[in-house]
Amino acid sequence: MKEKNKYQSRRDFVRKAGQVLVVAPLVALPVALARKTNASGYVWQIDPFKCTQCGQCKTNCVKTPSAVKCYHAYPMCGYCDLCGGYLRQGVKTINTAAENQLCPTGAIIRQFVEEPYFEYTIDEDLCDGCGKCVMGCKDFGNGSLYLQINQGLCDNCNDCLIARKCPSNAISRVPADYQYIPKEKDGVLHK
Amino acid sequence: MPLQRSQIWEYMDVIVLIAALLLTTWLALKKRSRQGLVWMSVFSLAYFGFFREGCICSVGSVQNVALSLFNQSYSIPFTALLFFMIPLIFALISGRVFCAGVCPLGAIQELTGYKPVRLPKAVESVLAAVPFIYLALAILFAALESQFIICRYDPFVGIFRLDAPYTMIIFGALLLISGIFINRPYCRYLCPYGVLLNIFSRFSRRHLTITPAECTNCRLCENVCPYDAILPSDMGLSSEEPEKSRKKLFLYLLLIPVFAVAGALIFRNLGPALAGIRQEVRLAREIRMEIETGTEAVSKDAVAFKEAGKTEDELFAEELMIIERFRKASPWAGVFLGLSLGFSLVALTVRTTRTEYVPHRGKCYSCGRCFKYCPVEVKKPS
Questions:
Q1: Residues of B in contact with A155 (CB under 8 A)
Q2: Could you give the ipTM of this predicted complex?
Q3: Closest CA to B29 of B93, B111, B105
Q4: Which of A47, B86, B247, B271 is 20 to 30 A from A109, comparing alpha carbons?
Q5: Mean pLDDT, residues B337-341
Q6: What gap in Å lies between CA B126 and CA B280, rounded to an integer?
């Protein structure tokens, strides 16, 4: 009987020691991370100055259509008649005919302001984030069109698929207090 | 510009998580209701799976914890930390109740698996080592800011969202189909969080029991567990010579440091290969190939690199730095795997004196399938 008690107490000791060993990191973890937690978390966002408009955002986002949309920095826009973001390269006539439009979904609306200026607005419901207009505007205009992740649509996946696919590493976590990187403000984080 | 959807839901998730864990604990340990646990799975699948679209989950939160521990600039969202810790705390109190009815990944498999087939023991033990490797790699890659591979290869999140790359849909569907016969394949042979729950649950204060009262050694439950998690009683079995098992124990104890060192060496040499998970490293290899052999680098990454105007030297310097970091960090993954192997060998030599049939605390998912096979009934006080 005595023998068995000894046996049992050794077993209890191993058990207790094991318990302490697993509880210790569980207690240590919140202590270690006490200063490194935040309540608001992060969101994924595109840095428009790194983006090369490769088109991966359109096809790789888990949302269909992609949560990436085109935005327009109006202060940078030249309001051109011959708009590189709106019109296909080498168009014969400048008008709103479908065959002249660069946007495959017709998401850009062109409105006359005054001679010779036109205003371009994006219909976000139609935009699929392909970035063709962004590239056109960058190459032939002021670069006022740029891609951003629409935070209202984004699922905020733990591992963002387009961030992984992005060839220019333009997509990263930004604090959720600043959800966009507007181009007109030189890429400073913005609420 | 539209702002992120309200974060209230994330705190709601934590509250639901705690409530669901409490309810599952009660159902598994007190009420002993398999049906209740199934309904709990249905609820969790509907809420955490289809309604909240499977993000954030405890399984993936391992990576957030790793990233915030080893990275200066990333601070972990409060809810992610809670999602990591709460199921582990419950595992210490009442076993793996999280797996039983709260985890949406477990729930979808629990509900689809109904014709359990037992695998040969050798196959089972080899496959059961995979989660350890998966966990080690997931922590390594997360800590080195590479990728969240647990999220990337989450087979069921695509089903929850009804939208995913088709390869992942096929993977998920294959798991579910094989899960009809080999129940919970993801939990058993892949889930990295299950490794932690397994370790924590071994030291739980209380745990689900097969019998509501005293085991009569009737052996009716012997073969009913689809996870091979029922430990038979040792009554009537002749055990090994004490002298022999003591010798084995000492041998295995000596092997633990050997395995750890071997693991560290293997993973140190694997470091540069593992670094290939970083896009910069792959790109640098492609560019170097272009310079050395003249094969034109045509990948999207290479095109973007040429457009961005970064110099090749900068890229190669960055590659070198990343590989160096992998060389420093990856031996620890090897040490972890070596220690795990060593301790699991030691566990084989432990002499048991069981007088009843009990669930294996590490392996038991507290699913409650064994309840109905136990003929023992608690006499109600009349």
A1: 53, 55, 161
A2: 0.85
A3: B93
A4: A47
A5: 96
A6: 34
pLDDT in tens, A144-161: 999 999 999 998 888 899
**Candidate from A38, A43, A158 with C-beta closest to B75:** A38
The residues spanned by each domain of chain B are 8-235+357-373, 242-349
Name the residue among A43, A71, A159 with its Cβ closest to that of B4. A43
**Residues in chain A, how many?**
191
Specify whether the backbone of B208 is left (phi greater than 0), alpha (psi in -120 to 50) or beta: beta
Domain boundaries, chain A: 2-36, 42-185
- Give pLDDT tens digits for A57-105: 999 898 888 999 999 999 999 999 999 999 998 888 888 888 899 999 9
In tens, the pLDDT along B266-299 reads 999 999 999 999 989 999 999 999 999 988 888 8
Choose the closest CB to B308 out of A157, A158, A168.
Answer: A168
B304 neighbourhood in chain A, CB within 8 Å: 52, 54, 167-168
Chain A residue numbers touching B148 (CB-CB < 8 A)? 158-159
